[in-house]
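To fix ideas, we quote verbatim one protein's residues and fold tokens.
>
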Amino acid sequence: MTDGRPVVLILGSGPNVTQARDWPAAWFDRIVVINNAWRVRPDWQALVYPEDFPADRMPPEMTPDQQLVDATAFVPAQNGYGGVVFAGATMTFTTAYWALAALRPRVLAFMGCDMVYPAQGRTHFYGTGTADPLRSDITLRDLGAKSARLGVIAAAQGCACVNLSLEPSSLLFPRVAPDALRGSVGQSLPDQIGLAALRDREAALDYLTPDGRYGRLEHRVNLDALDTLDRDWRALFLNGTGA
């Protein structure tokens, strides 16, 4: 542990996630994997997966200190931070909000979560797969803004969000070397007044879905309002807590 709060590594399925395979476990306190990323290394503690994740892709066996995290856990966690419409419906953001609520980290470090997909070649470390963030979705109009929102909300809890990838990324987080996470990585508090104002604007739109099934809201979602919020989350992050 560092200062009593964990350094949490979140592994996605991007092609570069295999770089994390041989990183010393001592660099992190918790390893959280998304979907197929449990295959990258065996010493993970939590696997976060959606309802439609195929049963035959689940780990064949688990150790006593490993847990499975499904919608019954991550939907309430994400709702606690405003809900999926504002947070962004990708497993990267869903997992991050769950980790923020459940693990209370000092650092959330992302690898294989860039959400930038080549037109040809491998899109995932295991070959090619469905590029979830590329689907038409009201929550995914600006992935960078969704990362900015996460970064600001995490910073308000004293948690720094950082990206361990060297590749092009949709994440706006500062780039940090994995062996430096126990060093000087820190996070200044964001503009509390600006943060509260944005959360109030979100609450006024009333797009919370207790079960996480936000599709039923699409007929009444104000896209201009969402785009304006995205712009303002970007600005708050870059002017206050970003690199």
Q: What stands out?
A: The CA atoms of residues 9 and 40 lie 13 Å apart.
